[in-house]
Amino acid sequence: MTLTLLLIALGAIAWFLKGHLGAYRRLKTLSDTASRQRRYRLWIAKAILAFAVPALAGLALLNRLDALTAVPPDFAAARALLPAFAGGPSAFLTGAVGGAAVGGLVVGTLAAIRRKRTLPVGNVGALLPRNRPEVAHAAAMSVAAGITEELAFRLYIPLLVTLATGNAILAFAFATLLFGAMHLYQGWKGVAATTIVGATMTAVYLMTGAVWLAMLLHALIDLNGLVVRPLLSSSSASRS
User: 154 Cβ partners below 8 Å, 6+ apart?
Assistant: First the structure.
């Protein structure tokens, strides 16, 4: 069953990516906000169907839904490579959010001063919202990405590969590289950046034992890039 579920999960990712680059390019050319908002909603729906549904269904079939709240013992070898965070997820979250808030504010301010609406890495300009309704959609997409992608790439796929190969380290490496490759539409810089983010989220998960924390941090990263910084940039431009 494990191999079958893995093939289904990889097939779902392939379905998500099919035509993804073309859809991103079409989003670039859309000028009316109603069409852009539909694209945002489609993106969210596809992420749920491609990542969350196979993961939850697969965990249920494997009788491993407990993995949502407790790190599977199958990951022990990978966890042993990293120090356990003694303060627990809550303490880690406090420090991480505090650091991210300061760093995001500094980077966002610099971006606003330079009046750039793009991120320093990755070609994501087409995803940036152009008005308030699009901001709400971009925020929803950020949250959906954080939840569904972390569920798939930090928990479900590593678990399947670990069960299939008996090697948790290989499983997380594979999932991290796959996560980065999935962002090919952002260009090679985007692939490199998202691979680093994936590796970081993997470390967060393994050190704290809380997949929800990786989901939250992922969502905050996306919200910073797709919502907060564009708003800062547009506000700076409107005052000039």
Answer: 175, 198, 201, 202, 205, 211, 214
